[in-house]
Amino acid sequence: MNSNVSSRVHIGEVIRNAVVFNPASRQDLRMNSDILETVSRFFSLLRERQIEYVLVGGIALLQYVEGRNTEDIDLIMTVATLEHLPELRIETRDADFARTRFEDLKVDVLLTSNPLFDQVRKHHTTSKRFVEHDIPCATVEGLVLLKLYALPSLYRQGNFARVGLYENDISTLIYAHKPSLTPLLADLSRYLNETDMAQVGQIVDEIQLRISRFEERK
User: Fold this and answer.
1) How far apart are CA 64 and CA 70, in angstroms?
2) Any idea of the CA torsion for 14, 102, 41, 16, to the nearest 10 degrees?
3) Is 201 exposed, middle or buried (0-12, 13-18, 19+ CB in 10 A)?
4) What predicted TM-score, i.e. pTM, was given to this entire model?
5) Which residue from 150, 198, 207, 215 puts its CA 20 to 30 A from 51's CA?
6) Is the four-CA dihedral 76, 78, 84, 90 of positive or negative sign?
C-alpha cells in the first residue's frame, strides 16, 4: 500500500466530510451528526445478513491512494441480493445500476447482471480493514478495470468533469501500484467493442506517457 495512505479508512468520516465541504449538499447537513452511526449500521446489517457484496468506487480507492471526497458508497451486488435487502430504498434502476438509499446514506449498486461487474466480484476482490469492519473490497486491478470500462460511455455523455476524475484515479493507481496492464486490457476487450477498446488503449498510452515524463523529472 502507498505509504501516504491511511491504514484504516473511516468510511463515515469520509462521507461526512464530503457533505460538509460540498455546497450543493448543504441541504443534507442535518445528517452529519448521524452519518457515522448510519454507516456503521449499514455495514453491520450487511454482515448480519451475510450479504455478498464488493466495495468499489471512491471509498475503495482510499485503500490504495490518497483520494477525493465522496458522498456515496458504491457496491457490486447480485440482483437477487438487492431485491432481498428492503432496507435499501431504490430511487432509480436500470439493467446495470441501481441508485438507492439506506436511511439518508446514498448507496449506488453495480449489478452483476453486467458481466464486467461480475468479473470484478469473482476475480478482483480482497478483504480490507476499515474502521467500521473488515470489508470485501475491489483490488487495484478491479478498480482500474471498472474505471476504464466506464470512460467511453462518459466521453459519449460529454461528462468532462467525471472523465477527468476517472482518468486521474486510473493514473494515480497505475503510478502508485504498477498493475500489469496487458492482461487487464485483454480482459476488458471481452466487454467493450472494438471502437471503445481503441479509445481505452489510447487513454492508457497517454497515462503511461504522463507517468514516464513525471518519473524522468523526479
Assistant:
1) 15
2) 20
3) middle
4) 0.91
5) 150
6) positive
Distance CA(64)–CA(72), nearest Å, equals 18
For the sheet with 97-102, list strands across it.
89-93, 97-102, 105-111, 72-77, 54-56, 134-138, 125-129
Cβ burial of 122 (10 Å; 0-12, 13-18, 19+) is: exposed
Instruction: Say what the pLDDT of residue 4 is.
Output: 44
Q: Tell me which amino acid residue 46 is.
A: L
| CA separation for the pair 70, 43 (Å, rounded) | 17
- Identify the structural domains of the chain with CATH numbers, from first to last: 11-138 (3.30.460), 142-217 (no CATH)
Question: Which amino acid, residue 191?
Answer: Y
> CA of 207: how far to CAs of 32, 89, 198, 199, in Å?
37, 38, 14, 12
Residue type at position 171:
S
